[in-house]
Amino acid sequence: MPLPNHYLITPAPTDEAAFLAALERSLQSGIQLLQFKAKGLSEAEYRALAAKVIPRAHRYDCQVLVTGDAALVNELGADGLHLDSKALAACSKRPLPDYFLIAVSGHSLKELQAGEAIGASFGVLSPINYTSAHPNIEPLGWEGMKAVTEQLSIPVYALGGVSADDEAAALAAGGRGIAGNKGLWKAD
């Protein structure tokens, strides 16, 4: 299945019922690829909620990448693993067989090249624009993204200060599309 133009990264769940309802709405809107991030949950809470998220997503033919240990992918029936920049730096080889998706996050060409070297399926580059999530990191801008994508063979999603409205700009910068939750996560 080719990669879609949107890669939803779920926000931190504060209320499980509300989170699952928003997930359902997001899936109904056509999301085909998501990272179940769920920042702030304990490992047991993450597993329990992932066991609800993954089958829901699969009913809509949406692929789900989990975070954390690669063993979670098989345990939970996920479609792949998302490595943040810290997890990527600790990786010397692809943590799963080729039939699983591997996403890597990075703030620079060098980080995404490291992902490419281990056989990542795609990368996520951030921040493209200013974002409160990374206030001390200088945004790359669309020209910066273009400079990075021109030197990579893996598809790259734009993240950080972007929304669904920025899809055309991401594509023009050589990206696969946009990542995040602004405009993709249907909270209400």
Shape: globular
What gyration radius follows from the Cα positions, in whole Å?
15 Å
Unreliable stretches covering 5 or more consecutive residues? none
- β-strand percent reads 15-25%
Largest sheet: 8 strands, parallel, barrel
Sequence of secondary-structure elements:
EHEHEHEHEHEHEHE
Instruction: State the distance separating the first and last CA atoms.
Output: 29 Å
Specify the helix fraction band. 25-40%
Strand order of the largest sheet: 1-2-3-4-5-6-7-8
Written description of the protein model:
The structure is a single chain. Strand 6, helix 6 (141-149) and strand 7 (156-158) form a beta-alpha-beta unit. The longest helix has 17 residues, at 43-59. Helix 1 packs parallel to helix 2 (43-59). By secondary structure, this protein is α/β, with parallel strands linked by helices. The chain contains 7 helices and 8 strands. The mean pLDDT is 95. It has an 8-stranded parallel barrel with strand order 1-2-3-4-5-6-7-8.
Summarize the structure.
With 188 residues, this protein is α/β, with parallel strands linked by helices. The chain contains 7 helices and 8 strands. An 8-stranded parallel beta barrel has the order 1-2-3-4-5-6-7-8.
